[in-house]
Amino acid sequence: MRNGVAAVSSLAAAAAWLAPGASGARVCGATAASETFQYRFIEVRYDGPDPNKSSHLSTIAASLGTSSTPLYECVAQWPETWAGWFEGGPNIVWSDCIWTGAGSGADKTVSFAVDWKKKTVYLSHTFACSDKRGSDGLATGSLNLDFNCTTADGSSFCVPKSTSTGDRPTLRVSTTLKTTVEGAAATTPTSCQTGAKTYQSWRLDKWLRQYQMAPGSSAPDSTRPLPADTGPSFALTNLADGSAFSCAPSGQKNGTFEGTCKSAGTGTGTTAAFTFDPVLNMVQVSQHWDCGDSSSFDAVGVEFMQAACDRNFNSDVFTCTSDPVWVGTQTF
């Protein structure tokens, strides 16, 4: 699936046009963890780095649905040494699963992350609560996979092992309602002990980035950045406390964009910032809280960003946009 990332751009463009039909609703129940949901990984494949390229990127792709029909296509890329964790550190890399348009989904966003060393896939999805008007639900789950890996001509790929009868395995993941997000004004945690124990995540939307690329140009790398790259701007909303920000780049350091996030007028005692690596398409979001008890805490999330980039009419300028995506923090 080395061409999976390129295919995602066209899927993203289709999803942007079809998105209204992708958002349904689910019952959130009276309490967190009172509802469970099912998804099926129809196809999963890991490809090691292409020996003919110097990028050393691994790719993992999956088709996700509730039956045999794929509703979402999930793709993530990261340097092989990361094994799914940003720079090999404590923050796992999340990636958006893009709606195929093959049916009516019940979710606003679907995301996945992979701990390649443990061969564990994590899944999250957000949705409107049909029984709690104005609220959204967040459900999460995970699945351990057993892979069969093959190496040939210097490259490797892995697929789930077949059953004892030689059939394709049935890979189902159950997700459990983790939290509901009230459609109310943001609140500052009364204590950092409480805030730090709450699962922090964000909705990132209104993504906008522009750059120049002449016809026939190759993809950028660390030695050949894209000309006139504006870096990304976007809106950021914390799904745990409702704090909202407007984010824009403030400069570059060693080719990586650094940005600040201005409060959108909701919440106090919290600030946010981000970085964006235009070569790896990695966004790192960070948020800091000063709590009512004079303590503080931080949360960090990383997203492999799959924006769809279209060439402006009669121009070498590309404009990149995206549907809303979910950015998580630690695993669960």
From TrEMBL:
Keywords: Signal
Keyword field contains Signal: yes
The organism's place on the tree of life at top rank: Eukaryota
Keyword Signal attached: yes
Protein name (database record): AA1-like domain-containing protein
Residues annotated as signal peptide: 1-24
